[in-house]
Write a structure and sequence with these properties.
By secondary structure, the chain is of the alpha/beta class. A hairpin with a 4-residue loop joins strand 4 (71-76) and strand 5. Residues 104-108 and 189-198 have low confidence and may be disordered. The longest helix is centred in the middle third of the chain and has 40 residues, at 111-150. The chain is globular. The protein has ten helices and twelve strands.
Length: 356
């Protein structure tokens, strides 16, 4: 049975976007580049890959940071082979430490190609504009964060951390083994339109949420990092999910052996308990000195106003980037047979050659 895992390996707020994607591609045996792979939707690829040489394979999809269904890369896990969008590869230059090759299937240049290039250029422009607005928003968020950090009752935060550690590791009969390593990617929920689409884990793999709520600076990332370190020390595997808006922070830590996700449940995620054993902690109620916050009430109000303005502007450009992506996708998909089908056939031939 076909199994697919999503990974978000890029953020337009990252200072080192190429390093993020290289983390996942560095251990592959070979990487093939595919022109305009990012204009394929996840479901399209999954439908095409159900048949032939890929029917029983497991895949890792590297998702587009703007469009929630766009795929920038695909890894055939058992073969250690990846397929990456050509434009993304061009950004990485020669930094990928494994063999690379380009899949050639497109002949000539048509008016459709020129239109697609134009829409993709507009998408890139909108992404750059969004990134600029997001960095402006972060300047005000940094100021807000400093105020909240100064208001934290460290003793209360440490007691809360102890409670969470006890809750997390109280599961009995966990089979410990050599640590499977640490996987790092971005939390993909930020570019999902609806709550029901935001989770990256199956119901079978994750059966408990530990939800942390609180404004930026209230200690959520400190708790997430501490729990990740403890899990690794206990020889458990760990999946770290960085915040797309604030790459230095964490949005979630997943411990597969415990079938548990510890999640930042604040906006824009707004995650609530859904399992019987879920736990919910509000850091602002338990660890923040309200008197300190009150003394900075005017400064917080003004900073919040500017923060929301820049976030609103960024969301406009992100939506425009998504619209440009969909326009290019529509034009390309009019020639479905000469594009996606042909690419899949090329991949199957490559797989056959690799297996020989």
């Amino acid at each position: 049975m076909q199994k697919v895992q999503e990974r978000y390996m890029q953020s337009i707020c990252s200072s080192h976007p190429s390093e993020d994607i290289l983390y996942h591609l560095g251990e592959l045996k070979k990487v093939y580049t595919v022109e305009r792979l990012t204009l394929s939707r996840k479901q399209q690829l999954m439908n095409q890959l159900k048949h032939g040489a890929f029917a029983e394979e497991t895949f890792t999809f590297l998702m587009d940071p703007i469009h929630p269904e766009g795929v920038q890369g695909l890894i055939v896990n058992s073969l250690g082979v990846g397929f990456v969008d050509q434009s993304l590869f061009n950004e990485l230059h020669s930094a990928i430490p494994c063999q690379t090759a380009e899949l050639e299937w497109r002949k000539g240049k048509s008016l459709d190609d020129e239109s697609i290039d134009l829409f993709l250029a507009e998408k890139k422009f909108c992404m750059d504009q969004a990134s600029e607005k997001l960095f402006k928003a972060r300047e005000y968020l940094d100021f807000i964060k400093q105020i909240y950090q100064a208001s934290i009752n460290q003793e209360a935060l440490n007691l809360l951390l102890k409670d969470i550690v006890y809750e997390l590791f109280s599961i009995k009969d966990v089979k410990l083994q050599a640590c499977q390593g640490v996987a790092i990617s971005y939390f993909g929920s930020n570019n999902r339109a609806r709550y029901q689409h935001m989770f990256q884990w199956s119901r079978e793999s994750i059966q408990r949420y530990i939800i942390l709520k609180g404004f930026s600076g209230t200690g959520k990332t400190k708790i997430l990092k501490a729990l990740a370190v403890l899990a690794i020390a206990a020889r458990l595997s760990v999946e770290l999910y960085r915040c797309p808006f604030y790459p230095e922070s964490l949005d979630a830590v997943v411990i597969p052996e415990l079938k548990t996700a510890i999640i930042d449940g604040s906006e824009p995620h707004s995650i609530e308990p859904v399992h019987p054993n879920d736990r919910h902690y509000v850091l602002e109620e338990q660890c923040v000195n309200e008197e300190t916050l009150y003394s900075f009430a005017m400064e917080l109000k003004e900073a919040n106003m500017h923060y929301k303005k820049y976030m609103h502007d960024a969301q406009f450009f992100l939506q425009e980037a998504k619209n440009m992506h969909e326009q290019a996708e529509y034009i390309l998909n009019r020639s479905q047979r000469t594009w996606l089908d042909q690419v899949i056939e090329d991949w199957e031939k490559l797989v056959g050659d690799i297996e020989k």
